[in-house]
Amino acid sequence: MASGISISKEVLKADFERVAQNILDAYGVDLCLAEIMGRRWSYIAGRKKGGNAFSPPQRIRLTGRFGIVSDGWERIPASEGTLLIESLKKAVEEHG
Q1: How many domains does the chain have?
Q2: pTM to 2 decimal places
């Protein structure tokens, strides 16, 4: 059973990396997938921007266990952002 969980998490990471790259290419926005453990958000996948940002990253909770962190979420059109969040919630529930 542990290997099934591990494969599922690897699928989630690979899928998220693809989505994050598409968002970066389309909008110039970095996304990271994080596991939420209390107040701590631990990086799992995505692109971590190098250097210092002038504004704090935005955290968006997908489930009680997972969320995304973005350096420029406001640059994504609202309708597209809503669809993206719903899609990521489904993926996390299915593979996380």
Answers
A1: 1
A2: 0.81
Residue identified by tokens 């990271």 is 32
Give me the residues paired with residue 43 across strands: 34
CA distance 96 to 94: 6
Cα(52)–Cα(78) distance, integer angstroms? 26
19-59 pLDDT tens trace: 999 999 999 999 999 999 999 999 999 877 654 555 678 99
Separation in Å, CA 93 to CA 3, 28, 96? 18, 27, 6
DSSP string, 34-95: EEEETTEEEEEEEPPPPS--SSPPEEEESSSSEEEEES-GGGS-HHHHHHHHHHHHHHHHHH
**Nearest-CA neighbor of 44 among 74, 75, 6, 87?**
6
Find the domain containing 88 and state its range: 2-95
